[in-house]
Amino acid sequence: MKILSSILVLAGLMAFGAHAQDKLEQDRNAIKSLAGFYEVNFNYADVSSADPNYKFSKPHDAHANEWAEIIVDEPKRIVIQHLLAINDTTVIKHWRQDWTYEDTDIMHYTQDNAWKKTTLNPADVKGKWTQKVYQVDDSPRYQGYGFWTHIGGHSAWQSVADSPLPRREATVRKDYNVLNRGSRITITKNGWMFEQDNKKVVRTAEGDKVLAIEKGYEEFTKIDPKVFEYAQKWWSDQKSYWADVRDVWADMAKASPGNFKVQTVIDGKLLYSTLFSLGDQSIKEKWTPQQNKERIRAAIQPYLASKS
After folding, report:
1. Residue 213 and residue 215: Cα distance in Å, rounded?
2. CA quadruple 65, 71, 74, 76: dihedral positive or negative?
3. How far is CA 252 from each of CA 80, 128, 179, 256, 297, rounded to the nearest angstrom?
4. Geometric angle at alpha carbon 128, from 124 and 132, rounded to 5°
5. 299 with 275: CB under 8 angstroms?
6. Between the N and C ends of the chain, which has fewer C-beta atoms within 10 Å?
7. How far does the signal peptide extend, from start to end residue (predicted)?
8. pLDDT digits over 88-109, tens only?
9. Can you state the angle between helices 229-255 and 271-285, rounded to 10 degrees?
10. How far is it, in rounded angstroms, from Cα 62 to Cα 203?
11. pLDDT number for residue 195
C-alpha cells in the first residue's frame, strides 16, 4: 500500500510538472506571436473626468506600418524590437518590449522621469510574465506583470503599471504627471489588440488624485512583409549597435544604487537624437563593440541622474 501511495504521489507530481511546462510553452507561443509585420491603428480618447474644469484632450487617431522582430528568444526571456517603416527610405527604431518569466526585479515609475528599483516577493510573480517597455532610446518607460490566460483558444495578458505621460501628450499637457496604465493584450486571428484603461494621475507628496480616465486601443493587423524590405536592411546594419546600447543601459541600471532619473533633453538636444546619430556614425566609421559602448556611455551619462 505504501508503495502504491508513493507511485500515485509521483504520478501526480509528474502530471503537475507537465501541465506547468505546457502552460509555460503556451505563454511563450503567445508572446512570440506578437512579432510580425503589421499595420497599426492607434486610438485614444478621454472618456470622463470628475473635474468640471478639465479640458478633454482631442481624440488621438493615427496609423503606421510597424515591424516587431524577436531579437532575444530564451526559455524565460523574450525580447521584441518594434520598428516603424515610414516609407521606402525612412525607418524609426520604435519601442521595445522585454518579457521575463517570474521576474522579481522590476522598476516602478514614480514621477518626473524617475524610476524606483524594486525586488518583488517570488510568490507575487509565480507563474507570471513581466512586460518591460522601453523608449525609442532604450531608456525605461514602464513595467508591469500578470498572468497569460489561454481559454477557448484565446490568449490574453493584463497588468497595471505607472508610466510617464505618453508622447502624444507630454508636450501639450502639464496638468498631470503620471499615467496609470491598465493594459490588456489579446491575440487575434490576424494579429493582436492592445487595449488600455488609463488614469491620468496628479501625484504629489500628499498622494494621488485621478484627473481623468482615458480609453485606448492599438490594433495590430498583419500585412505583406514586402512593405518592410528597407526596414529589414536598415535594422540589419543597425542591430549590433543597438545591442550595445541595451547592454550599456543594463549596466547603468544595475550599477545605480537606488532610483534613477533620466532627463530627455540636455542643452536642447534630445537623448534619442543623440543615440541615433551615434548609430549612424558607428556604422560609417565601423566602430568595434568596445568603441560603441564607450561612446554610448559617454553620451547617456549627462542625461542620467542617480538618486538614492
Report:
1. 7
2. negative
3. 21, 26, 25, 6, 9
4. 100
5. yes
6. N
7. 1-20
8. 889 999 999 999 999 999 999 9
9. 110
10. 29
11. 98
